[in-house]
Amino acid sequence: MSHAAQIGYFADSFASMKKILVANRGEIALRVMRTARRMGIQTVAVYSEADRNAPHVRFADEAYLLGPAPSGESYLRIDKILEIARHTGSEGIHPGYGFLSEQALFAEKVQQAGLIYIGPRPHAIEVMGSKLAAKDAVKPFDIPMVPGSGHAISDPVEARRLADDIGYPVLMKASAGGGGKGMRIVESSEEVASQLERASSEALAAFGDGSVFLEKYIRSPRHIEVQVLADHHGNTVYLFERECSIQRRHQKVVEEAPSAFVTPEIRKAIGEAAVRVAKACGYVNAGTVEFLMDADRKFYFLEMNTRLQVEHPVSEWITGLDLVEWQIRVARGEPLGFTQDELKINGHAFELRVYAEDPENNFLPSTGVLHRYREPQGRHVRVDSGFEEGMEVPIYYDPMLSKLIVHGRDREEARQLLIKAITEYEIEGIATTLPFGLFVAQHEAFISGQFDTHFVQNYFTADSISQMRQPTGEAAGIMAAYLHHKDGQLLKLPEDQNGRWYDRRR
């Protein structure tokens, strides 16, 4: 389809896009539906047998059963999702994140069915879905990259030679997928063969692709990502950076925007680099470009996530933009209504992912019934949740219960509000990452901004939370407030600030 024909197609679709199907579940399904309802768009929910009584099912205008609880028999059923979309007269499909959101085949089949895919083009998903293909795509665009092999490695002899040239330590990484699977740190040449075999086997089991490549391991790395937004008219902007270095098992737990480590000069440079990455694959819609940053603030391209990110709310807080709204507007063919120069950072935001995991037991999943579930409230507090009191946390899906997001005029004010919101969050029946979030928020390394992706490894142990319970001053007082669900009046609240995205969302 030519560019002119494509614009005509979207112009024709603009007026008719009155109903969308949300091909997801839980908090992200609800989050998308709330924006769609505000825009006057009807929504269709899909659900598995395990989610029959879930909030997103009741919130939608229509809801249809996909199949049994396992995702392979429900949320990954492309044929069934498209059948429901046609049956309900949906004009568009929003994939959320997870499940089918980064499958080029799904995006392609949606378009072939004559529906609008609320996300990037299939080509961009395919290119950026492979770390090796992504690196090849961005090479001509002057993007800083970590020294590495640049191609898949399977021969231990070649791997050892390349690792010797790169210099130890090196990192073996799966080309497909993420989340730390198929990733091994190699400290010496003697480890190369065994770690190559393990990384490749793990990648094959996790992603169906055993391709592994080598790159220099960056010590004390920070995980910095940039939110980008692009339309079908050639406009691409960056919505500043997010700091995502507080992780466990290579999965993010606490995120913030902007980063306390990034200077204005670096912010401009990394933002412009992210825009070039997006242009390298003809990217359209919302996406995230991820970078590693070393202790000297040198940044290196890591990968691009071709979907909405879990942590997108912190970017919404500091820019005042509803990213889902702009995803829908872009998908309908509208141009962006602002330029890069018009975007400004307003305050500071934190997000804590509230997982059904036990931080005192190596973050192992915790399932059961939510005997008590009470969310914190406030103009500067946002909770994106897919659960309610009395619901059972299923074993079939990601263990995230909700996202707790706060916004303040500056980083310290936002941090204080995060602590207060955690103490007001009441969950009984399962273990969660709330006490871990409290530990992070009051740790000196976090307060000073001097931390990296090894925060958990360097500072957190199974005893950390129990030690917080001991009567040893302010930390114990905060922990006591958390444990007994007290109000936390010692903590300063920001003054009311009108015009925030969260206020408009309700």
Question: Strands, helices and their partners?
Answer:
Layout: H1 3-16, E1 19-22, H2 26-38, E2 42-48, H3 55-59, E3 62-67, H4 78-88, E4 92-94, H5 104-112, E5 116-117, H6 122-128, H7 131-138, H8 156-166, E6 170-174, E7 183-186, H9 192-207, E8 212-216, E9 222-230, E10 236-248, E11 251-257, H10 264-280, E12 285-293, E13 299-305, H11 312-319, H12 323-331, E14 348-355, E15 357-358, E16 364-365, E17 368-369, E18 372-374, E19 381-385, E20 392-393, E21 400-408, H13 411-424, E22 426-428, H14 434-441, H15 444-448, H16 455-459, H17 464-468, H18 474-483, H19 501-505
Parallel strand pairs: 1-2, 1-4, 2-3, 4-5
Antiparallel strand pairs: 6-7, 6-8, 9-10, 9-12, 10-11, 11-14, 12-13, 14-21, 15-16, 17-20, 18-22, 19-21
Labels describing this entry:
alpha+beta, 19 helices, Dna Ligase, domain 1, 3 domains, Rossmann fold, 36% helix, five-stranded parallel beta sheet, eight-stranded antiparallel beta sheet
Structure description:
The structure is a single chain. The protein is α+β, with helices and mostly antiparallel strands and 506 residues long. It has 3 domains: 3-118, Rossmann fold (3-Layer(aba) Sandwich); 147-216, Dna Ligase, domain 1 (2-Layer Sandwich), CATH 3.30.1490; 222-494, ATP-grasp fold, B domain (D-amino Acid Aminotransferase, Chain A, domain 1, 2-Layer Sandwich). It is 36% helix and 23% strand. It contains 19 helices and 22 strands. It has an 8-stranded antiparallel beta sheet with strand order 13-12-9-10-11-14-21-19, with helices on both faces. The chain has a 5-stranded parallel beta sheet with strand order 3-2-1-4-5. Helix 3 (55-59) links the parallel strand 2 (42-48) and strand 3. The two termini are 39 Å apart. 48% of the residues are buried. Mean pLDDT is 90; it is low at 1-15 and 485-506.
